[in-house]
């Protein structure tokens, strides 16, 4: 591990670095997502309290991925069109990706990780559906497994200004899992999500929640495949598919959702 990586990780673990917080609005929407009945008017009011989230909800409701013939002009209409599950996905994705870094090189790295996380989250849902696992949990695992990246990049900007792209990427790879785990633990999220983050690069080593770690690992590999389609055979042969007893036709079914996943990614990132 690089000296720069060690210094940043030590500072994070020693509490010398401000960590991101899970916004109250995101917390409330996530709680409502698990309720048997949802008051749409109350949900609209909660979303109104966060202008950034409200703007994204209206924009996505009117995007090509979700738009109907009639233009949506109110949050309550948007809530009805998008549905509860998609709304909390939007809330989570906005909560973990609103940081800004005054450095173009580092900002580009953060945006790449944001896109990778969203692709992994959406493919994670498809994988979970295929094996009848917890879809919402798997979305969160994909979305949050790199939640520490903005923390790392901000520390690079402050401690090592002028860091070149290749070195910055190496530092992020060095300590992404450790820093992201610290953030998730600070939020008090379920142990399955924390362990998925800790072990998704080597899921066979997971002491708990091994299957969730394997699903997250595959979702990340599918995100790599999106960037380079020549990796298809390598991804299909991934040992995590065997561990989870995926048949070839099930793998094909998941990969066939590529267009839908990328349409939703485009809508949520625009």
Which ranges are low-confidence, i.e. pLDDT below 50, for 5 or more consecutive residues?
A: none
N to C succession of SSEs: HHHHHHHHHHHHHHHH
Give the tally of β-strands.
Answer: 0
Structural class: mainly alpha
How many structurally independent domains? 2
Largest sheet: none
Note down, in words, how this protein is organized:
The chain has 270 residues and is mainly α. The protein has 16 helices and no strands. The protein has two domains: 3-19 and 99-269, no CATH class; 21-95, no CATH class. 70% of the residues lie in helices and 0% in strands. Helix 2 (24-33) runs antiparallel to helix 6 (84-95) and helix 7 crosses helix 15. The longest helix has 27 residues, at 104-130.
Structure in a nutshell:
With 270 residues, the protein is mostly helical. 70% of the residues lie in helices and 0% in strands. It is globular, with a radius of gyration of 19 Å.
């Amino acid at each position: 591990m690089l000296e720069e990586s060690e210094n940043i990780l030590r500072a994070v673990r020693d509490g010398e670095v401000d960590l991101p917080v899970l916004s109250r609005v995101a917390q409330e929407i996530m709680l409502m997502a698990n309720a048997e009945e949802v008051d749409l008017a109350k949900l609209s009011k909660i979303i109104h309290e966060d202008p950034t989230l409200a703007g994204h909800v209206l924009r996505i409701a009117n995007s090509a991925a979700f738009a109907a013939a009639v233009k949506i002009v109110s949050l309550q209409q948007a809530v009805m069109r998008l549905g509860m599950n998609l709304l909390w996905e939007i809330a989570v994705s906005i909560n973990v990706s609103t940081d800004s870094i005054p450095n173009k090189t580092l900002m580009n790295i953060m945006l790449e990780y944001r896109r990778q996380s969203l692709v992994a989250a959406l493919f994670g849902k498809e994988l979970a559906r295929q094996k009848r696992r917890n879809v919402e949990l798997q979305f969160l695992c994909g979305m949050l497994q790199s939640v520490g990246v903005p923390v790392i990049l901000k520390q690079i900007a402050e401690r090592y200004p002028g860091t070149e792209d290749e070195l910055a990427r190496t530092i992020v790879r060095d300590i992404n899992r450790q820093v992201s785990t610290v953030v998730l633990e600070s939020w008090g999220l379920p142990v399955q999500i924390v362990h998925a983050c800790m072990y998704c690069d080597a899921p066979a080593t997971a002491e708990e929640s091994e299957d969730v770690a394997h699903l997250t690992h595959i979702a990340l590999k599918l995100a790599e495949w999106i960037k380079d389609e020549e990796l298809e055979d390598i991804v299909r042969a991934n040992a995590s598919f065997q561990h989870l007893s995926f048949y070839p036709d099930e793998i094909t079914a998941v990969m066939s959702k590529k267009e839908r996943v990328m349409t939703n990614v485009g809508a949520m990132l625009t």
